[in-house]
Amino acid sequence: MNKKITLILAASLMALAGAASAETAVGTHTVYLGLAHIDVNSKAAPLEGGTKQFPAPGAQIRVGDATTTGFGYTYRFAPRWSGEIALGIPPSHKIYGNGVIKNAGQIAVVRQMPPTVFINYHLGEYFTKVEPFVGVGVNYTYFEKKRSTPTGDAISGGPTRITLENSWGAAAHVGFTVHYTKQWSLTATAAYADVRSQMRSYTTTNNGTEELHTKINFRPMVYTMSLGYSF
Amino acid sequence: MNSQFKLASLTLAAAAMLSACGGGSSAASDDPPPARGAVQLGVVASTTPVTKAQIDAGTAAKGIGALAGAAQCDVEIRYVYYSTRDPQGVIAMASTAVFVPTGTGAACSGNRPVVLYAHGTTTDQTFNMAQVDKNAEGSLVMAFYAAQGFIVVAPNYLGYDRSGLQYTTYLNAEQSAIEMVDGLRAAKTYLNADSAVKPSAKLLIAGYSQGGHVAMATQKAIERDYASEFTVTAAAPMSGPYNLVKFGDVITTTGPINAGATLFLPLMLTSYQKAYGNIYASPSDVYQSPYDKTAETLFPTKSTLTQLIQDGKLPNDPTFTKLFGTGGLLTDSFRAGYATSNYRKALQTNTLLGWTPKAPVALCGGANDPTVFFFNTTDAQADFASRGKAVPASNLESAASMQWAGATTAATIAGGFAQAKAATSAAAGGGAAGAAAVQGAYHGTLVPPFCNALARGFFQSVLAAQP
């Protein structure tokens, strides 16, 4: 992982070395492809519900980080303004036990699709080739796959099905674009999205179905680095 | 090639590599589950230790104060939730009670020997040895062992308490040993990290009824597979069905049928069906209607046995012996095909004869046990003796069989047992009703304190001989 980020950084330095001043004209389309690292700082109340109590109250969960391939499209509709749709290959996040079930390790996995649209304001070129921008937008997170691991089943008390509500929320990012040529550019961003979801687990036992639930605030910071092609 | 294409290909290559190893959602990319015997959670279950006075009051109320002896130590009750494996090798969670002697007495501090105790059969899903206020077996071993300076590790088998398994691994010798070993590992890890009183390297294994079978299976497995991790100091299996295949032959063919058979058979059939998958194609192959609808998933249960009989899920028979015939639990075809059945093969697999214990063993039971027939004990003794391992087999009905413990002890135990039977009979009015009361109490109530008293004396003598 670190090696690959180093690789990208090296690539971006190469880009800087050869960069030339390049204004982005109104009407420019840019497609980009790169990496997105999703640093999740989840907060979730202890699991509630069900008839079984854990040895002590306080079974919690924690959502793990993920790295994926990000891609998207930007359209410059005014000299300082662009619209952007950010997509990616759906990343899988491991969900870990926390609180009294911390030692269980991974108890579930979820795969999510987090398409986000932004309106970006470009601050103009600094150092003749670096163009910072800020953007605000809307994120929709669709939880596509949800699976309890064998450890999750064991600690839940039987085969367990998980549901997560899809989430709508505000998003914002800051970043900068290094214009390499009129066509090629490198963009780095740091984004935050408001992603909250009610998670429910349904465990099948001989005594019926046990339902547990908690509200997860994912609080994800997303760091991206992408290569763009403009036309 | 232009440098921008180099740049593009570098970024693309990096992106492709990362998404390839960036974690999928398939089972193959799951983290490995926690190791066997890993502590999931350890807690002190009692806010204050159970005091010596409380323990003495408890044994006195049951009329076993003299057998238990005055408590030497207060007992701190701990509870450990740990990871183990089910018969398929899949992670499962189980819990164990841990009773730790505490206090100022010489026997109550420092490094204490560990009694790994295997509990008897129960149908109660909420069964938890740590709940000494309502678990009679838990309170018994707390008084007999922990209050006398032994650390007691008493795992609840898979399927009970907070375990997630939907059935219990009943009389599955190798599997039961795995659960016991993992419970022991977890308890020792937890105590070494968290308790002032630590476990010593001395390991004593005891168990009663089903637990007698489990205790023997655990000694066998530890001496064979875990010798680098644990050394068994001594073992005292009590009233266990060691000769399972002969036991099955008697019950299924010649009779008599043992008391409790209509509970034991569903426990065993489901356990073996889950472990080996070949006991039946459909529950109706072995269970009569209507029991074939529910028997497979009946136990462990939160319902009382009275309720299950009322609900028509068990034959209406308070002695739980109505295995065959009209209104019985099992089909005639199961009985007719028994001799060549996979069920009998499973019993053979789990029969604990044909191995030789390394550590000293003392067996114990009562010759008139209507639940686990005493031939199990004498057959194990004879089998070990056939390979030169002399093992006492105490029969509470016979002072002569207990001479190994000393003439005084033998006379005291035999006399005390006879008195206890007489008291049970008298309380029921004597005569036939009294005899029935003795039969009803024999395996579950009358024998355990006497055999545990012998077992503890045996452990103390072995420890004294190898300090």
Can you put this structure into words, describing what you see?
Chain A has two helices and 15 strands. Chain A has helices spanning 2-17, 150-156, and strands at residues 29-40, 43-44, 59-63, 66-78, 81-88, 92-99, 106-113, 116-122, 130-148, 160-164, 167-179, 184-193, 196-205, 208-217, 220-230. The longest helix of chain A has 16 residues, at 2-17. In chain B, helix 5 packs across helix 6 (210-225), helix 7 (244-254) packs antiparallel against helix 11 and helix 13 (407-427) packs antiparallel against helix 14. Chain B has 14 helices and nine strands. The N and C termini of chain B lie far apart (81 Å). Helices cover 42% and strands 15% of the residues of chain B. The model of chain B has no long low-confidence stretch (mean pLDDT 95). Chain B has two domains: 39-243 and 355-465, Rossmann fold (3-Layer(aba) Sandwich); 248-349, 434 Repressor (Amino-terminal Domain), CATH 1.10.260. Chain B is of the alpha/beta class and 467 residues long. Classes of the chains: A mainly beta (231), B alpha/beta (467). Chains A and B meet through helix 1, strand 1, strand 4, strand 7 and helix 2 of A and helix 1, strand 1, strand 2 and strand 3 of B.
What is the string of helix and strand elements of chain B? HEHHEEEHEHEHEHHHHHEHEHH
Please state the second-level CATH architecture of chain A.
Beta Barrel
Oligomer: heterodimer
Which regions of chain A contain 5 or more consecutive residues with pLDDT less than 50? 13-22
Evaluate the radius of gyration of chain A.
21 Å
Counting helices, strands and paired strands, the structural category of chain B is alpha/beta
Strand order of the largest sheet of chain B: 1-2-3-5-4-6-7
Major β-sheet annotation of chain A: 8 strands, antiparallel, barrel
CATH secondary-structure class of chain A: Mainly Beta
Portion of residues in helices of chain B? 40-55%
